[in-house]
Design goal:
Keywords: Membrane, Transmembrane, Transmembrane helix. The chain is mostly helical. The chain contains three helices and no strands. The chain starts with a helix and ends with a helix.
């Protein structure tokens, strides 16, 4: 295997790891907010407020996709769709980069 091919493979592998890591972090932030919601965390706390703001921004496109009469179901489904999508798309892109 030539040096050029090895460097390209290593670069693709590193890019794949980076994309997977970003997807994991995004999904983690969303899941953390859902957990804090269920634990009835103090929303006056700066850290809880920051996590809520970031998770809300990440799930803006999916939160009102479906509507439910119970608030906890709305939170789980609305944020859950975003978290799962980030994981699936991020890891699909990472897998594609690994194979490159």
């Amino acid at each position: 295997m030539s040096t050029h091919t090895r460097a390209r493979t290593r670069g693709s592998s590193q890019a794949g790891r980076a994309v997977a890591l970003v997807a994991d972090v995004l999904a983690f932030v969303i899941a953390l907010w859902v957990l804090l919601y269920f634990l009835d965390a103090n929303q006056g706390n700066a850290l809880v407020d920051l996590i809520h703001d970031v998770a809300s921004w990440l799930a803006t496109w999916s939160y009102d996709l479906f509507t439910f009469s119970r608030e906890w179901v709305q939170v789980v489904v609305g944020y859950g769709i975003a978290a799962v999508t980030y994981l699936l798309v991020g890891h699909a892109i990472a897998g594609w980069l690994y194979r490159r």
